[in-house]
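Please, structure for the following, as tokens.
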Amino acid sequence: AGIFTKDINNFVVYTSGYVTQADNLPDYDGFQLEKALNGGNASLLGAEIAFQRQILPGLGLYANVTAIDSKIDNLDPKLQDFEIYLNEEIRNNKAAGIEALIYHKGEIVWHEAYGYTSLQDNLPLEKNSIYYIQSMTKPIMSVAIMQLIEKGKLRLDDNASKYYPPLKKLEVIEDINTGIYGPTVDVKYPITIRQLLTHTAGLSHGLEENIFDQQLFKLMYNDLFDPAEYDILEERVEKLMQVPLIGQPGEQWYYSAAPDILALILQKITGQSINEYLRENIFDPLLMLSLIHI
């Protein structure tokens, strides 16, 4: 799940949180891209589905979408198209629930919740529900690390292995098409905090269609992208450390699980748990009282 925003011409659309129906997810064999209406696109990343479609003039809407009964009677025609689209998605079992909000010139002009929080129990999704935001924890962790940098407890160009020693042992795969067990070469430069923050360290997340990422995904997750098999974050990062880098640090951008390593670095430097630090320094000051890191 996630929260995706697009701000163009004073329009902001917030969409977040859906519940996928596991039985309808395709098997993981490179997660195929799907087309979603009128030249839009949908990409399946683990169990995460993000759709893109033009809804309002100049507005690109990124949404995790589904709907239940239509509420289109009194809507603007453009929003009627949106409602129709949502109903098509729920009928096609793409997802189970979505909450969408349009904020325009300082006011909430449209806010609806559709579908279910649980398909098994047929519980309707309500506004202001709590969602599993998955990768939106990445910018939160980045903010936490930048706070440490502001306080002088960490530097962007610090060698990250100073705080997480297993990074010293990593090598670089010669060819990602040989998979995670192919020949490797030595790392030219140490991984820095900056590279972990910017996804340029050479790490991966196992979400692309190449053989390397497919094998990494199967090593780290089950077919539903379920992280719950790990009792603690350290276990998941240890799995990541069993795999070579996809490229030399600093030489490419590649979406990765680097924020997991940053979280461990945060714990080491502060002496606090991730939850404790985020609550004290980010969530409580911003009145994000329902948010918890798991």
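Helices lie at 77-91, 137-150, 193-197, 211-220, 233-240, 258-270, 274-283. Residues 1 and 132 are 6 Å apart (CA to CA).
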